[in-house]
C-alpha cells in the first residue's frame, strides 16, 4: 500500500495505479500459492512468475 500511495503522489494516472495494483495482486497470489515469502524471492522465482 505504501508503494501505491507513493506512486499516487508522483502524479501517476489512475489507470496506471490500477494496472500496478492488479499486477501486484497477481504477484503476491503467485507467491502465496507457492509458499514463497516475498522477502526470500530469488531470480528463479521472478523468472518463473514472468515466464
How would you characterize this protein structure?
The chain is mainly alpha-helical and 51 residues long. The protein has 3 helices and no strands. It has helices at 2-9, 14-33, 43-50. The chain is elongated and about 35 Å long. The model has no long low-confidence stretch (mean pLDDT 93).
- List the total number of helices: 3
| Average residue-wise pLDDT | 93
How much is the radius of gyration in Å? Answer: 13 Å
Write the element-wise H/E pattern from the N-terminal end onward: HHH
State which percent range the strand residues make up.
Answer: under 5%
The largest β sheet comes out as: none
| Shape call | elongated
By DSSP, the count of extended strands is 0
Helicity, as a percent range: over 70%
> Which structural category do the helix and sheet elements fall into?
mainly alpha
List low-pLDDT spans. Answer: none
Through-space gap between termini = 26 Å
